[in-house]
Design a protein that fits this description.
By secondary structure, the protein is α+β, with helices and mostly antiparallel strands. The protein is built from 2 helices and 5 strands, in the order ααβββββ.
């Protein structure tokens, strides 16, 4: 299946090179719609109070953070950082990893 997706992607990328401005606008709107759908679908896996982890930064300077979901927005999640509860982040659900609950 992955090989088939790779062939489809190559076909789409090659086709884009031949598109005029109107065709490109249609493609852009379709991509945005798909990304919005996937973002909203990702949000369904999270609930307020869930423990999450994410990385922030670039290259080798990425820092790992943990926190708790405090709000669910249309496209992002509000997260309060552990140890600094006054620090709030708005993060896309795709950038978060849900941590397993450990009942001790």
């Amino acid at each position: 299946m992955a090989e088939n997706n790779s062939e489809q992607l190559k076909y789409v990328l090659d086709s884009i090179l031949t598109f005029d401005r109107d065709d490109l606008n249609h493609v852009i709107y379709a991509v945005k719609d798909r990304k919005n759908y996937l973002s909203s679908d990702d949000l369904k896996g999270f609930r307020i109070g869930d423990r999450v982890q994410w990385k922030h930064g670039t290259g080798l300077n990425k820092v790992k953070y943990t926190g708790t979901v405090s709000k669910i927005n249309r496209k992002t999640l509000g997260v309060k950082e552990d140890g600094r509860g006054w620090v709030g982040w708005r993060i896309s659900a795709g950038a978060l990893t849900k941590l397993e609950e450990t009942n001790g």
